[in-house]
Design brief:
- The chain has helices at 155-172, 228-233, 323-336, 356-359, 373-382, 396-399, 421-430, 442-454, and strands spanning 2-4, 38-40, 75-82, 88-91, 97-100, 108-116, 120-130, 196-201, 207-210, 217-219, 245-252, 258-264, 272-274, 278-283, 294-297, 301-306, 309-314, 344-348, 365-370, 389-393, 409-412, 434-439, 458-465, 475-481.
- It is α/β, with parallel strands linked by helices.
- It has three domains: 2-25 and 307-481, Vaccinia Virus protein VP39 (Rossmann fold, 3-Layer(aba) Sandwich), CATH 3.40.50; 38-44 and 194-300, OB fold (Dihydrolipoamide Acetyltransferase, E2P) (Beta Barrel); 60-135, Beta Barrel (OB fold (Dihydrolipoamide Acetyltransferase, E2P)), CATH 2.40.50.
- An eight-stranded mixed beta sheet has the order 1-20-19-18-21-22-24-23, with helices on both faces.
- Helix 1 (155-172) packs parallel to helix 8.
- The chain is globular.
């Protein structure tokens, strides 16, 4: 693989020194008994609609949450639809939209207004007076932690809601009358699917999630979304209240290896006493985006397997959090992209090379663009054995306008903010016959789709994937042709 500099006009052919990742000679396996405590630091005794932020049984639950009517003055009203962000929408007597967490369409509820604007309001759900048949008991003791938005509804209802919201965003924002949205692909796992989770610290040092609409941290000792290897260590991790840690990310790789990332506003790392077989890295002010990780124990990366292939994933690199569903997306791309032996494929926001590794052997040449330094290094290591791959390191909005390429296929996988306008304009100028857009945000997908349609493309298909069960997030792959 040839790695390119930030300025494509001056290519440098230096091959990365690292070999393709292989399983390490010795693996650290988590304890099968109750893990010992990990003690970083000193131990002490979830009109343009605004964005909002189970057990698997189907039985309806008692109205939730409930308060006696005489003690809960407020409004009664009917909820009409779910909106992107996780809330249900209703109407106030004055016609304003009101957004209510934990509600479901068709329910009559009692609510209390907590925020009022000229055109809309937000409310707290006090009581469900008439529950939806899709309402179920949340299968988690920390259902108010803010990490899950749809845990109170059946899984088929979650899938239907996400499909409807994606279609609505394309209609309202992109202006498509009948967007070609296919039925959503369910997640292979509804629970315990996340291979990476970010926590905040409660005042007493316990791990938790920020409560919706506030900075208060709800401590958790069990999370139904976490991979089992992550869930196993949660009750054993103990921080001193004055350790200075702002965020803790926990990742799992092959053979259940664990990587813990500590982020702090203090440049000095905390003292560390650890009795678990895990790797730990530290990043000071600015996090991993601005700092090389300081290795405090073990390694600065994991190996993560997808479709039988190991990928090196460093502490500062992005990787899809639901590996089985990412494998479904890979299969969809391999089956539907017009891959030909002589084709030139351009991948933008290539990450560690998850898609490139499987697409490059099917085409003549593959050019990739990635800006995150850790991901650039991982990509180079993961695809070093492939001679038909060129990597351009730098922001897409800077690389693409200077890139003299005429690709047959373009694949983009931008962050939630979507494509920067200079990057999108540069892609339009390339006039590729086929463009695939991987999106994790239907609003920015719709915005960018409108620009692509105005630039001469036609939206051929939209395939949603449920990458994030129990949450409002929606992943999709859209194909554009010209």
């Amino acid at each position: 693989m040839a790695r390119k500099p930030a300025k494509p006009s001056r290519p440098v052919k230096d091959r990365p020194g690292s070999n393709p990742p292989a399983a390490p000679a010795a693996k650290r396996k988590p304890s099968r008994g109750k893990p010992a405590a990990a003690r970083p630091g000193k131990k002490t005794p979830g009109e343009t609609l605004p964005r909002q932020s189970v057990e698997d049984g189907e039985r309806p639950i008692p109205p939730q949450p409930q308060r006696p009517r005489q003690e809960a003055p407020g409004h009664e009203g009917d909820l009409l639809a779910l909106v992107y962000g996780g809330d249900a929408m209703g109407r106030l007597p004055d016609g304003r939209a009101v957004f209510v967490p934990c509600g479901l369409p068709g329910e009559r509820v009692r609510l209390r207004l907590v925020e009022q604007k000229r055109g809309f309001a937000r409310a707290e759900l006090l009581e469900v007076l008439s529950p939806s048949p899709e309402r179920i008991l949340p299968g988690c003791p920390a259902a108010n932690c803010g990490g899950c938005h749809y845990m109170h509804m059946t899984y088929p209802a979650q899938l239907a809601a996400k499909t409807a919201i994606l279609r609505d965003q394309l209609q309202r924002i992109a202006g498509l009358v009948e967007p070609p949205v296919a039925p959503i692909v369910p997640s292979p796992q509804q629970w315990n699917y996340r291979n990476a989770v970010q926590f905040h610290l409660a005042p007493d040092g316990r791990l938790g999630f920020q409560e919706p609409g506030s900075h208060r941290v709800v401590p958790v000792e069990d999370c139904r979304l976490c991979h089992p290897a992550i869930a196993e260590i949660l009750p054993t991790v103990d921080f001193a209240a004055d350790a200075g840690i702002e965020r803790v990310q926990v990742r799992v790789g092959m053979e259940d290896e664990i990587l813990v990332v500590l982020e702090s506003n203090d440049p000095v790392p905390p003292e560390l006493s650890i009795d678990l077989p895990v790797s730990v890295v530290f990043a000071g002010p600015g996090g991993l985006a601005e700092n090389a990780p300081l290795v405090m124990a073990g390694d600065d990366h994991l190996l993560v397997e997808a479709l039988g292939r190991p990928f090196r994933v460093s502490a500062g690199s992005f990787f899809q959090v639901n590996t089985p569903q990412a494998e479904n997306m890979l299969g969809y791309l391999l089956d539907h992209l017009p891959l030909e032996p002589q084709a030139l494929l351009l991948e933008v926001y290539a990450g560690v090379g998850l898609f490139s590794a499987f697409l490059a052997p099917r085409v003549g040449q593959l050019a990739a663009v990635e800006s995150a330094p850790a991901a650039v290094d991982d990509f180079a290591a993961n695809l070093d054995a492939l001679d038909n791959v060129a990597l351009y390191a730098g922001p897409a909005e800077e690389i693409l306008p200077a890139l003299d390429l005429r690709p047959d296929i373009i694949l983009v996988d931008p962050p939630r903010v979507g494509l920067a306008l200079p990057a999108l304009d540069a892609l339009l100028a390339m006039e590729a016959p086929f463009l695939a857009y991987i999106s994790c945000d239907p609003a920015t997908l719709a915005r960018d789709a409108k620009r692509l349609l105005a630039g001469g493309y036609r939206l051929q298909s939209v395939q949603p994937f449920d990458m994030f069960p129990q949450t409002y997030h929606i992943e999709s792959i859209s194909f554009f042709t010209r």
